[in-house]
Write a structure and sequence with these properties.
The chain is of the alpha/beta class. It has helices at 9-17, 23-41, 49-64, 106-113, 156-163, 180-186, 220-230, 274-289, 305-320, 338-349, 352-365, 371-391, 417-422, 428-433, 462-475, and strands spanning 44-47, 75-79, 117-122, 169-174, 189-192, 212-217, 260-264, 293-297, 397-401, 437-444, 450-456. The chain has an 11-stranded mixed beta sheet with strand order 1-3-2-4-6-5-10-11-9-7-8, with helices on both faces. Strand 2, helix 4 (106-113) and strand 3 (117-122) form a beta-alpha-beta unit. The longest helix is centred in the C-terminal third of the chain and has 21 residues, at 371-391. 55% of the residues are buried.
Length: 489
Amino acid sequence: MENILDMTITELKGLLRKKEISSVELTAFYLERIKKYDGEILSYLRTTEDYALDMARQADTKIAQGEDAPLLGIPFGMKDILCTKGIETTCASKILKGFIPPYNATVIEKLNQAGYVHLGRLNMDEFAMGSSTENSAFQTTKNPWDVSRIPGGSSGGSAAAVAAGLCVASLGTDTGGSIRQPASLCGVVGMKPTYGRVSRFGLIAFASSLDQIGPLSRNVSDCATILNVIAGYDPLDSTAIPQKTPDYAASLGQDIKGLRIGIPREYSIEGIEPDVKKAMAESISLFEKQGATAVDITLPHTEYAVATYYIICTAEASSNLARYDGVKYGFRQTGKDIIDMYKKTRLKGFGKEVKQRIILGTYVLSSGYYDAYYGKASKVRTLIRRDFDEAFKKCDIVVTPVSPTTAFKTGERTEDPLTMYLSDIFTIPVNLAGLPGLSIPCGFDAGGLPIGLQIIGQPLDEARMLQAAYVFETERKVKKIPDKYSAKT
């Protein structure tokens, strides 16, 4: 049998349907791999073994009865930010330790209907605030390609688990690059859909106008399969787009002759590693060989993106995180009165990065500063969106690096927040503009660390983005799992 780790969801479903493997066996295979390898990688905060095997048994029963569903019997890891009924959901924060949601997020509900198997909860930066998964209150996840390095963030656990073959696929969230950047640094496919394409109901909010849920997988086909399941209108989310979703898998395999690829001149900045530049040039050349045309474009307000983002996201974080007061759920410290209880609970419950962002956000929203900071940032955000609108008159997709560098060493940037924040310089504009973006592996640097290529699509045009990514993946075959973790067991 072909190595299970190299199979797409469609291929795995074929094995399940033909009874060549059962969902219980497939689930046990991944649970054993987690036991064998995750002690080193630390991608899972906790596994849900009994729950997973029960879901797998139910899937096998349905398969035996001739039933079918898009993800029936397929084991997933889940970023610990999505409310899952009856399963502790902490956002990698002490303040939510012990919180067991009484309901499912809409995406979890859709995965349940599609027949998935829930392997466990994946580590992340606390409340999704970070680019390295070093801000988790519980553990620091390692990069499977080099365990002395970070996996990216905030969906670092999700990317590392997929890269090491500890789940078939996972869901992450992306507020400023938190799916695409770890996907790039761990050498997997990661996608942020258009804002509003996937319901945020049941997602524990960080910055509500920027957050979006999306898939991480080892191939483009799986990414499309998962998006087919989770995308679509949801009346429980007031920002969900009331528009029918296409079949994303249907466009895979079509050629890209005549496709216009925008190359933004503002993304050629100092600080891009030579190997990243080289991989970019080779990637553009590959697209051209497949019949696409490279077009120079300009995104003139790019230089303001990082500053704009850190005003908007901290302001929204300050508002969203005000609910964690030790009264209704989660962690609580006793105090001499209610204000003292609030202070002690938040002081011990929140980590340093979260407290830093709440303080910044409260400041930019405060009386006398709102117009100078948040008001102005909102206007610049509109200019960034208009830059893309103008650029898309000349091109169909935009291609850029995901990150200026490959994965950096653990601890290397923790005392330098500005350098850490700048690692998201190529991903942040996509969130500010509400566009879809995808990271696909495009090669390795001289040290054997993965490099990701970013494909940015027009609003609601995930299908064309996936089509281009599929052509790229087919032509440029890049190893997806490090040798150490690529064994069939």
